[in-house]
Every structure is written in structure tokens, then in C-alpha cells.
From TrEMBL:
GO cellular component: cytoplasm
NCBIfam families (alphabetical): PRK05751.1-4, secB
Protein name: Protein-export protein SecB
Function in brief: One of the proteins required for the normal export of preproteins out of the cell cytoplasm. It is a molecular chaperone that binds to a subset of precursor proteins, maintaining them in a translocation-competent state. It also specifically binds to its receptor SecA.
UniProt key word NADP: no
GO BP terms, alphabetized: protein folding; protein tetramerization; protein transport
Key words, A-Z: Chaperone, Cytoplasm, Protein transport, Translocation, Transport
Short name of one Pfam family: SecB
InterPro entries: SecB, SecB-like_sf
GO molecular function: unfolded protein binding
Family classification: Belongs to the SecB family.
Length: 162
């Protein structure tokens, strides 16, 4: 009986696992078409370059902001003239308790960006459409793989510095 009470007390001391999405928001948004209207007077032959990253920071007790930043630059494939440049920083506030160390890092670096990316995709597609360009439907992104690559690079970097 005393052993059961001791285990219950230990369980209460440890935070229970909690994960909830508090808010999704656009933190920054930009659309530029520097060569309009000339860009519309030639056949649209796009060459897309995409830059994608995510960041996270603790903003309160058990409260974390995660931001997925997507930048797409589309240029004419032959002339190199910029058709448009679109940038979205999609933010989210997540309440996460009961996770620490690698588990918390993995959640902030892979799981949370997976939640936010569809919103960033839709925002980019909407902006491009409003700019009078054909839809730019970005392919889904595997943030799990990106996180694994980041961890591998960090491990390789620490091995070379030792």
C-alpha cells in the first residue's frame, strides 16, 4: 500500500504529457511581381526555386512558437526574368508539457512544422492566384526527413570538432 502511494506521488510530480495547438497565424507575408505587366506578355515558362525552413522558441511556460518560412521565387525559364517572389512565415503557438530533451526537440522540429505547412501552402497558392499567375501548388514536405538530416549534420559537425 505504501509502495502504491509512493508511485502515485511520483506520477503527480512529473508533468503529464500535454500537446495542444493554441493558435495558427501568418507572421509575415510578401508577394512581389517586379516585372509586371511585361511578364504577362510572354508565354509562362516557370523555373521555381524554393527555400524552406522552420524555427521554434519558447515564449512562455510550456508555450512554444513554431514558424515555418517558405520562400518561392519563380523566374522565366529562358530569360531568367523574375515572374514573382512570394514569402510566407506561418506561425503557430503550441502548448507542450511533459516532453523534454530530444522528444521536445523532435516535436518542435518535425511534428509542429507538419501541422503548419498545409496552411503556408494554401496561403502561397492564394497569393500567387491573386497575382494573376497559375496556381503554385507546393508538394507536401517531409519534415521528419528534414529533421533527421539536420540532426545528422549536427552529429557530423560535432565529430569533426572533436
Amino acid at each position: 500500500m505504501a509502495e502504491d502511494n509512493n508511485q502515485a506521488a511520483q506520477g503527480q510530480d512529473q508533468k503529464q504529457l500535454q500537446f495542444s495547438l493554441q493558435r495558427i497565424y501568418v507572421k509575415d507575408i510578401s508577394f512581389e511581381s517586379p516585372n509586371a505587366p511585361a511578364v504577362f506578355q510572354q508565354p509562362f515558362k516557370p523555373k521555381v526555386s524554393l527555400d524552406l525552413n522552420s524555427t521554434s522558441e519558447q515564449v512562455g511556460e510550456d508555450l512554444y512558437e513554431v514558424v515555418v518560412k517558405v520562400t518561392a521565387q519563380v523566374a522565366h525559364a529562358e530569360s531568367g526574368t523574375t515572374s514573382f517572389l512570394v514569402e510566407v512565415e506561418q506561425g503557430g503557438l503550441f502548448r507542450i508539457a511533459g516532453l523534454q530533451g530530444d522528444q521536445l526537440d523532435h516535436t518542435l522540429g518535425a511534428f509542429c512544422p507538419n501541422v503548419l505547412f498545409p496552411y503556408a501552402r494554401e496561403c502561397i497558392d492564394n497569393l500567387v492566384n491573386r497575382g494573376s499567375f497559375p496556381p503554385l501548388m507546393l508538394a507536401p514536405v517531409n519534415f521528419e526527413a528534414m529533421y533527421a538530416q539536420k540532426k545528422q549534420r549536427q552529429a557530423e559537425g560535432s565529430e569533426t570538432t572533436q
